[in-house]
Specification:
about 70 residues; mainly alpha; about 80% helix
Amino acid sequence: ERQPQLLRDVLRRLPILQGKGVIEHDLSRTLMEKAAARFATLTLIEEGTPVLEIPGRIHNIIENLKGEVS
């Protein structure tokens, strides 16, 4: 959970598992939201993002994740 790459891999696999019927849509969405939030938090800490730049940086991180997961 403290490894951003592991979280990125989880985010890539969740839609696949949902599509195969392995996990339900609601559970998949909840897990994706939690993993994305954790990934963003770890990234912000790792980068040492200044407080005033956090909202914009979170938006960028989430958009990049959406592009990778799609």
